[in-house]
Amino acid sequence: MKMDNSKRAEVLIQAMPYIQKWYGQTIVVKYGGNxxxxxxxxxxxxxxxxLMQLVGINVVLVHGGxxxxxxxxxxxxxxxEFKNGLRVTDKETIDIVQQVLAGKxxxxxxxxxxxxxxxxxxxxxxxxxxxxxxxxSTADDLGFVGEIDxxxxxxxxxxxxxxxxxxxxxxxxxxxxxxYNINADLAAAKIASKLGARKLILMTDIRGxxxxxxxxxxxxxxxxxxxxxxxxxxxxxxxxxIPKIDCxxxxxxxxxxxAHILDGRLKHSLLLELxxxxxxxxxxx
Length: 285
Hints:
The protein has 285 residues and is an alpha/beta fold.
């Protein structure tokens, strides 16, 4: 369907207050899930991020790469093992994780952004000691799975200052030369907190927080972090949503203005959230 010139002008006029609102602000986007698997969705996300940069937003892109890691492990005959949603990462697996995340996936995203007209630079948590981690302490030994102990934002800020979109893969360094696999949601939340970002956006494979997981029309659009314990007790926040929402809560408590869970299956979900009256997904404040 073609849009006439008056409709185009109306869309731009409606977006103008939001462009002014977000100009010069830092927004951290965690990218993964189905939006990463589909080339069509990937192109839409990359164009959204480039547009955000062009209108003056400081965008930091933090990414995962689970499907690509699984594919590489399958090629080497290595069986993927998960405990409580976290990948068991032995020495052979962490080498593959590092190669895939900091290499193939990271540089592919940089190239997509460049092709879409943006300026991007690929980074990982090892660069400039950006992410320092300790071994994650759990009942089960997960191997080289870490929890972030310190974030050094200097290289991220330098990249933004020089007009680049930092594209960050979530592997971190240990204090004795180890390399750790870090959950991308957790890394994005820690980075957003350290940067004092205006927004943290986690792109997922569902509409947001649902009152009824069987009904996508039961979306809860706005949640106060003070209500999260009650929603957990009621079972509305459960399963795989718990760690994602905990990331949002921790980010807001640490000074991030707002945290959002968005549906990465929806084309241009970032633009709809940032530049429209309605917004989408679930916002935590």
